[in-house]
Amino acid sequence: MRYSKSVKNRIARVDGQLAGVVRMLEEQRGCADVVAQLSAVTHALDRTLGAIVSENLERCLEESGAPEDDMELKVKKMIELLMKTN
């Protein structure tokens, strides 16, 4: 599976945000600040997940090798998987 530069940049940004959270914990920053930063990380991850799915859904379905009549079931399973992440 190929991922766009945009998706890779999003992941790198999330990585930086998480490193920032670790620093905040080490510095014993206030709970509100830590929670706010974690909320930003969560939002960024959700947006990244959406970007990956929107860029690759068709390819994922094609690579699954499912016959046309099984595509609806595959789509439903992918939607269920996405719903579990939220």
TrEMBL record:
<dbReference type="GO" id="GO:0046872">
    <property type="term" value="F:metal ion binding"/>
</dbReference>
<protein>
    <submittedName>
        <fullName>DNA-binding FrmR family transcriptional regulator</fullName>
    </submittedName>
</protein>
<dbReference type="Pfam" id="PF02583">
    <property type="entry name" value="Trns_repr_metal"/>
</dbReference>
<dbReference type="GO" id="GO:0003677">
    <property type="term" value="F:DNA binding"/>
</dbReference>
<dbReference type="InterPro" id="IPR003735">
    <property type="entry name" value="Metal_Tscrpt_repr"/>
</dbReference>
<dbReference type="GO" id="GO:0045892">
    <property type="term" value="P:negative regulation of DNA-templated transcription"/>
</dbReference>
<keyword id="KW-0238">DNA-binding</keyword>
<dbReference type="InterPro" id="IPR038390">
    <property type="entry name" value="Metal_Tscrpt_repr_sf"/>
</dbReference>
